[in-house]
Fold these 4 entries.
Entry 1:
Amino acid sequence: MERPVSTQSPDAAGSAIEIVEVAPRDGLQNERRLLPTATKVELVRRSVAAGLRRVEVTAFARPDRVPQMADAEDVLAELRDEPGLRRIGLVLNRRGLDRALAAGCDEVTVVVVASDGLALRNQGADTAAQVAAWTEIAAAAREAGIPATVMIAAAFGCPFDGEVPAARVLEVARGCLAGGPAELAIADTIGVGVPAQVTEIVAGLRALDATVPLRAHFHNTRNTGYANAVAAVAAGVSALDASTGGIGGCPFAPGATGNIATEDLLYLLDRSGVAVRSDRPEGGPLDASAIAATGTWIADELGLPQAPAMLGRAGGFPTPASAPA
């Protein structure tokens, strides 16, 4: 890549979009190849070196159902003293929270699925039961002093129930907001959403609570993920999930392919003039070129022919060739 593609770093970080890196969890959980703990740790460290700070490091799930996350505690142990890293653990129940607290997570994300069809297959409990579990987990997390994000999955469609109306998503959100989340996220788990849905749902969430920070999680299964990200930013979302290399998917949702790629998202936001938050101690923006190189590396580690992301292949905005003498 001839010229590094980087993001803007505004004086007021609060006005910038925050990128939450999810490759170590969502990126790896659906891949057939099981990576060693050392490789997962290296993925996180490369992300931090490129300037990413909030990283979804692992999930505390049953090893027999999600074997890619079986070493959650080992990964966290290796990263316990990593400077500048905010270690996010995904949890599905109270036992998962207890494991995350013991392992030293800085924050947790709790999944509540908007559709009963996927909820039952993903967690063995319907949506109402998951909202009740979230409320208990949120209270315990507050008592422990760590932030808890609630993520409403299948907010744009379900592989089993089909359409998920915005009214249903907002009904679930209302129940989740009662638990007092530090952040509320919406996820297009199977990559079926379009910008009009994003705008409608985010506006509805803002009407329910104008103060809670909003986050969005998109998959690019049908090439709408990046358009949805732009729509989310325009609607007022303050954080976007992305996965280095564009790897990822849900093992319980048929056909759910990769997340939007961190490097491609950074290029899109940068060229659109959208500021992206950077908390690098030495200052400066996120290093999209380094992230793209990591995307190529992790795809190779997974045995993929190439990373789904495009920036590692095409490079950043081309530098004009010198005029002939």
Entry 2:
Amino acid sequence: MTQLIGQTGDQHTIHHDRSWEQFKLIQKGFEGSPGVRLFFYSGTIEILTPGSEHEFFKGIIGMLIEIFFLEKEIEFAPTGAVTQEKEGIASAQADESYCIGSLKPIPDFSIEVVFTSGGVSKLERYRLLEVPEVWFWEDGLFSVYRLRRDAYERIDGSEVPELADLDFELLARCVLIAQTSRLAAAQEFRRAIQSK
């Protein structure tokens, strides 16, 4: 794998029994701090400073998704880690998120890279924010969840219509290839998309 400079592991802090007002003060205190992600749900504040390994995988996944959009000529708006929140209820910042077509208040899907925290436990937060689909990258695999009425259901592939042809096994394989060569990963992914 490529040598990563800087902090490789995530730094994760959790504060329980906190109010929305306390969260907003902490959020204000972190304004202008690049890379810090803040979350609020049910009186719990989480502060995450992703390490270089986390950011590496986030970036590779984003690169490959954008290659898919470009090859399939799908108009999209990358919304990255934009803060999604409902006043007094929940706040989240995905690792990556995208709107199909133009910008919307809620992304069509959000992506979470899981190293030290979160995973499916973050789904309740996303449910309150009404994000239609959430993808998790953990231990070299993707898991995809679709919001149905009032709960997420694990599904085999994306139900975003424009992503119906996205092969998650191919995507995962190319993310892993990118550990040794980003160019080889992009070329392999592009070739596979063009051959379909």
Entry 3:
Amino acid sequence: MTNSSSSLTPEGRLLSLDFFRGFTMFLLIGEFTGLFSNLTDPALGGTFIHSLGEQFHHVKWQGLHFWDLVQPFFMFIVGVAMPFSFAKRTARGDSYNLLFRHALQRSFLLLLLGWALYCIGPGKITFRFQNVLAQLSVTYIIAFLLIRKKVSVQLIVSFGLLILAEVIYRSFPVEGFNHPFIPNENFGTWLDLQYGGENLGGHWVSFNAIPTTAHTIWGVLAGKLLMSDKPAAKKLKTLIIAGLAGVIIGYALNPVTPIIKRIATSSFVIVSGGWSLLVLAFSYWLIDIKKSRNWVIFFAVVGMNPLFIYLFAHLNGSDFIRHIIYPFGMALFGRTGELPASIIMNSIIWFLLWYICYWMYKQKIFIKI
């Protein structure tokens, strides 16, 4: 087996991390094309395609679909990348105080961007933490503050946050909001009503940023493991054992604490953290150990500009592309039927979003904060 140094490119990049981040971002931008909705069209009811399409939509309340894992993947990946960035900046002479200021600035910008996404639609200033950028602004700074602490300290804090959330939800005394696992009748909804005046549709709550901080902390621990001098086989074994433990424990807790992504219950955070570790383990085994790398660039180019492509797709970039190509596309594919033509066109839009990332990669344009 190879050691840690041979897993890195000359630029100090871990290819499996580039793939995992790019694959996650590729899925996220795919949501904005409308293709996932095509797959659950009533016309496809009862088919394998429809069943597959269901996995690309969030569970309405309790349970777990594949799509419920994408945000945890992203927040976990940010954590995995943090030790690499921290070590790189430290090696070039940056002090901890300088790194801390940069972390604060980055968290603040993530928060502003997260808030801005809520303001654009209704045309009014709205302060919410439900989207991934706003929540990441919280999880990132907490994980940074722990990055130099012992593994035991980071684990204690991460599980402590889960226990704290569990206790608050179960013991919250306000009438009408003291049912921890019922939509809009829990502490998370009450908290949102205190500062926002309304609850966001879909039962998502801002307090999720606290329990899901565990995802980013666990990502930091995984990143430190992959940076270490331990043999690759031991790294892989550790990731697999930790991942399996998370998945088994998370599902086992479901009868006691339901798996609910929309309020980030402890069982959900643990099971999704376990899946995150297992996907990272698979990526590390396939790409950095087995050296299957020729195809990685397809996804990696998306992960190299994650903030740009997420904002571009979120701010109707896919609709802009749609308005340009739809008249031509429908003229070519309209005879196949409305649903098949829509699937083809939305797939083309997805490809064009990917191509924007590829073009930026070729031009060496990388937008970071």
Entry 4:
Amino acid sequence: MLWGVFVFVQTVRHRDYFLPPAGADDESAHAPPPSDAAAWASFGLMGVALVAVIGLAKVLSPAIERGIAAAGAPQAVIGIVIALLVLLPETWAAVRAARADRLQTSLNLALGSALASIGLTIPAVALVAVLLGMPLQLGLAAKDLVLLALTFAVGAITLGTGRTNVLQGAVHLVIFAAFLVLALVP
């Protein structure tokens, strides 16, 4: 439901928040919606890109598994590397937007990525598990649950004011770094 609201806000209600800042001085003006042909072309190209990224992850996963085993890292690192690979295009776009001083666009890309990953993947996996009668295990240890709760709390503080700053971004990066360190050294 959260992902659906985000998509509605992004594509209908406040579409101009998600566009480059040209004409950003006039908050009452909304960008015109794309034509049907452009929308369908974007949808098709998004599907192609998604298949390509997931296919790449699938092809590279045996090599990643061998590399993680050779390094003696925990099995959880495999999931982190695959997730980073799948999220690389959105991450790259968010970094490019931030470097171009389009911080709102960068934040929107990050939020959209997180909502799609969490808001769609976990319910889809849960639905498949229920339909196939398989047990569902999210695999979150106690330390991971604490980091998840901390991330939600910091995210609520960061986004609650409607504006962000460098310090809040740094706090998120430190939490992420702690997650990575704890994944490598359990």
